[in-house]
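Retro notes (design track)

What went well: tokenization of the new backbones is finally stable.
What didn't: we kept losing track of which sequence belonged to which structure.
Fix going forward: every design gets posted as structure first, then sequence, in one message. First example under the new rule, 118 residues:
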């Protein structure tokens, strides 16, 4: 079993966006919540969070106590055009960035995406 680094206390990329998110409402959907760090950050900030992950959410439930967490198989996006095409017409993308998550022994590639329903 690979060794995992303990998660940080807050989601560094998301914390500065919380005031902006409040302007759009209080409900958040997160697809691919992983450990639940973003869901925990948003829940602790007073948002109603619905989070999904295909790997299971047992660990996320321990961290994101205020979020509704669900196990669900969802499509993985591998490039920016695929992400934009999947959200086009339903969501306005406010933030989209490809990043490397270093919380694992072998870092993982992920998309950070903040989108408003339109």
């Amino acid at each position: 079993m690979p060794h995992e680094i303990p998660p940080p206390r807050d989601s560094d990329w998301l914390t500065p966006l919380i005031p902006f998110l409040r302007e759009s409402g209080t409900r958040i959907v997160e697809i691919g919540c992983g450990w639940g760090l973003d869901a925990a950050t948003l829940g602790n900030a007073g948002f109603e969070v619905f989070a999904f992950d295909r790997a299971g959410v047992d660990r996320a439930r321990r961290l994101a106590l205020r979020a509704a967490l669900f196990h669900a198989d969802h499509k993985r996006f591998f490039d920016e055009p695929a992400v934009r095409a999947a959200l086009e017409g339903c969501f306005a993308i406010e933030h989209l960035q490809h990043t490397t998550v270093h919380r694992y022994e072998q870092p993982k590639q992920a998309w950070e995406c903040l989108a408003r329903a339109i």
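Added context from the reviewer: The chain has four helices and five strands.
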